[in-house]
Amino acid sequence: xxxxxxxxxxxxxxxxxxxxxxxxxxxxxxxxxxxxxxxxxxxxxxxxxxxxxxxxxxxxxxxxxxxxxxxxxxxxxxxxxxxxxxxxxxxxxxxxxxxxxxxxxxxxxxxxxxxxxxxxxxxxxxxxxxxxxxx
Length: 135
Known about the structure:
By secondary structure, the chain is mainly beta. It has helices at 35-40, 119-125, and strands at residues 6-11, 18-23, 26-32, 43-48, 52-56, 61-64, 73-76, 84-85, 93-96, 108-114. The longest helix has 7 residues, at 119-125. One of its GO terms (molecular function) is metal ion binding. Keywords: Metal-binding, Zinc.
């Protein structure tokens, strides 16, 4: 079903929110410098919605939006940790925080800077960011 991918599990700090995600053992993580990503140090990798499953905690999530209201910044109501969200660049997928994954399944993290201060330009110039949420 998810050939060549690894099942990663993870969640928030208090454990109220848990998820699983199918992705490579070698993660390509974006380090965005937009206002919200800078404030909360939101480094993330992107997967299609079909590779993400919320295992528990839907009732413990709350969502913050701003500006275009396209990105859905979800976080745990109890501990405040955002372990995943729906990015503006990929509204049909999820941005997963690699630091919220359980130990043992990630082999390598490659970080790529993304110029979110000039979001529209950066998305247009990036060769594949919008395709990262395609199955």
